[in-house]
What we know:
Elements: H1 13-22, H2 34-46, E1 53-57, H3 60-71, E2 76-81, H4 85-88, H5 93-97, E3 102-106, H6 115-125, E4 134-141, H7 152-164, E5 168-173, H8 176-183, H9 187-190, E6 198-201, E7 212-216, H10 222-231, H11 240-250, H12 254-274, E8 280-281, E9 289-295, H13 296-304, E10 310-311, E11 320-326, H14 333-344
Parallel strand pairs: 2-3, 2-4, 4-5, 5-6
Antiparallel strand pairs: 1-7, 6-7, 8-9, 9-11, 10-11
The structure holds pyridoxal-5'-phosphate.
Amino acid sequence: MFFASDNASAVPPQVIDALARANDGYEMPYGNDTVMTGVRARLREVFEAPEAAVYLVSTGTAANVLSLACLCPPWGAVLCHDTAHVQVDECNAPEAFMNGGKLLTVPGDGGRIDPEALKEALARLLPAAVHNAQPAALTLTNTTEMGTVYSPDQVAQLAGLAKGAGLSVHMDGARFANALVSSGATPAEMTWKAGVDVLSFGGTKNGLMGVEAVILFDPAKAQEFEFRRKRGAQLFSKHRYLSAQMQAYLADDLWLDLAKRANRAAARLADGIAALPGGRLMHPVEANMLFAEFPAEGHARATAAGATYYNLAELAGGSELGARLVTSWSTSDAEVDAFLSHLRG
Length: 345
Ligand SMILES: Cc1ncc(COP(=O)(O)O)c(C=O)c1O
């Protein structure tokens, strides 16, 4: 009954096997391995983006901050949601890597930026005077931090507003696969066709040991990204082990299967909680993360039985408990059902 995070899951056997296969003989270092050639080609194919530049890094934070640094100069600003991981959970790494560039937050329900609020934020910054931060980019998180999903149309609407004001668009896709399978869109529809310039393509939360890709749909910034990745200590000498993980992830659409499993488990959990007396979902459950309230006795029984998840309302001290529950590819129906039976009592 482990619902604290999706990156607490184990690594699927296909990925471990791929690592074992890669662990033979010699390969050129620093991203020049033959496996990476295949990974680049496959990601270009998956995203219908034959020109895209593709790189691997080891954390979602690295993917985000190296991407944003390419899109925002030291005098610039990146607009993000109030709850964005870059704003709340990256210890000012975006600002450090942007070398003075700053994040400006924009509100919106359920983790999604409200288009009207984005218009207002842009209007406050434009026309840009020498005194204010120069709006440089918009970053959207999909799956959002509240477990909701932007549809391609919603991405296109926000990206259109940003582009109309001369900004670039980044997507934090730490849970991109979960959003994609939830929406039914193609990878291209969810990204460059909707106006996304750079994608942090998550792998770790969806089963990899520690690999994320950065996809620059316009390769104009590719060389800059390479310099920034090296300078950011994210260019791996034994790169083949990163490539091997990503290769296994993409093979036979493993990445989509893993995300479907995680989303299915979240839906089962959500249905069960919604049916409880006193159970309430705080946001629509559209991917593999849910926020829910349920009575304190249920919480006490479940945690006493070993359930692990983040309890939001301990901060607020109410009797109804708000919980953040995250499922992963390895969450079983049995785990979900056991948890629900403890909540029911
Ligand atoms: C939406 C989002 N983006 C980025 C990250 C960063 O990932 P990492 O912890 O690998 O740096 C996370 C991790 O929690 C996340 O939830």
